[in-house]
Design a protein that fits this description.
The protein contains ten helices and 20 strands. With about 350 residues, the protein is an alpha+beta fold. A hairpin with a 4-residue loop joins strand 5 and strand 6. Helix 2 crosses helix 3 and helix 3 packs antiparallel against helix 4. The longest helix has 19 residues.
């Protein structure tokens, strides 16, 4: 199969962006005509980019996907070892990496269930399997949505409402009660709220034991969990206060970060979606793997440097693999019931 050179696609993507969004002047069109006439491959590349964009627009794709794809078309992320085209240009950007998450895909292998903690219990343990989501309604009216492979323990007292996130990720919608704080322990951090909405995610084992807290509304404070001995020998730690739209990331491998969060990306899992915005393929694979018992692996670490943007349905590893292999120079090297290994396709 003949493949157009990546620079030709990159140039075509730049021309498409310029003529559509930036400069529709006669001079621009004259320069564009000269570029088309210079090489027969130019028209083929431009037509491919234009067709991909038109297909997405006609399909009434989520505006976020269109935006990500537009940004991707002008990007120049290349893996030089393979001389790949720009991530977005070769794949028609987010046709795939956008697989417009239709209702039929959203239900995929990931499904919702609901659990109610009886008022008389004031405690309990709850968990989800890989690819499952569940919502727990607590006795005070608060709700906890559990993402894939997550586990919590609930222990309420008259003075305080306590939840411990042991694994995975959870979304908390807290009922207001100033006399009874709502406290979430995750890793070595304690999150305290009165009435608010926030997301807490624990890193996977071996990832530096990270904790990420993202606030959607209200206020929360985040502080280290300290033993009695630590409190005796060290001064009190100053809690980190978050405002809506902020995220705090704590890891053993890096300094603590507080930054503005992309809330739609952080909580997309609640709609059964996984959102990537110029993420590496390695990071995308790791995220997709959270939702499926079938593990995707990259045979060559260099493949992981490719950039991915778009929206996928959580729990559909096969669709992700089909997308990547269909639009990148990547092939399935090994396919087993429990794992799929992706390798680089040879250039011809």
């Amino acid at each position: 199969m003949n493949t157009l050179h990546d620079d030709v696609y990159a140039a075509a993507a730049d021309w498409h962006t310029r003529l559509t969004d930036e400069d529709d002047s006669p001079r621009a069109h004259a320069e564009f005509d000269a570029w088309l006439a210079a090489d027969a491959r130019h028209k083929a590349a431009f037509d491919a980019v234009d067709q991909a964009w038109s297909s997405l627009s006609a399909a009434r794709v989520d505006p976020r996907v269109l935006k990500l794809r537009r940004e991707g078309l002008s990007a120049t992320h290349r893996l030089h070892a393979f001389r790949f085209a720009t991530a977005a240009a070769l794949i028609g950007a987010v046709v795939a990496i956008g697989y417009v998450v239709a209702p039929s895909l959203r239900t995929g292998r990931t499904h919702d269930s609901a659990m109610i903690l009886p008022a008389s219990g004031e405690g309990g343990a709850f968990r989800t399997a890989v690819g499952e989501r569940s919502t727990v309604t607590l006795s005070d009216g608060s709700t906890v949505a559990l993402n894939t492979n997550s586990r919590i323990e609930v222990s309420f007292t008259p003075a305080q409402r306590n939840v411990r996130l042991l694994t995975g990720q959870a979304w908390f919608q807290v009922a207001k009660n100033p006399q009874r704080p709502f406290v979430v322990d995750a890793g070595d951090r304690r999150v305290t709220a009165l009435g608010t909405s926030f997301d807490v995610r624990l890193g996977e084992p071996g990832s530096g034991d990270s904790v990420q807290v993202t606030l959607a509304e209200g206020k929360v404070s985040v502080e280290p969990i300290r033993s009695s001995f630590t409190r005796l020998i060290l001064p009190e730690a100053v809690p980190e206060l978050l405002t809506p739209g902020e995220a705090l990331i704590v890891s053993n491998d890096a300094p603590t970060q507080k930054r503005k969060a992309d809330l739609s990306k952080v909580i997309s899992w609640r709609q059964g979606q996984v959102v990537f915005d110029n993420d590496t393929l390695a990071a995308a694979v790791a995220e997709i793997n959270r939702y499926s018992a079938t593990r995707i692996e990259l045979a060559d670490p260099r493949l992981g440097e490719l950039k991915v943007s778009g929206v996928f349905a959580a729990g559909r590893s096969e669709s992700f693999v089909e997308t990547v292999t269909g639009h990148y120079p990547i092939l399935v090297a090994t396919r087993e019931p429990s794992r799929i290994v992706l390798g680089a396709a040879s250039r011809r």
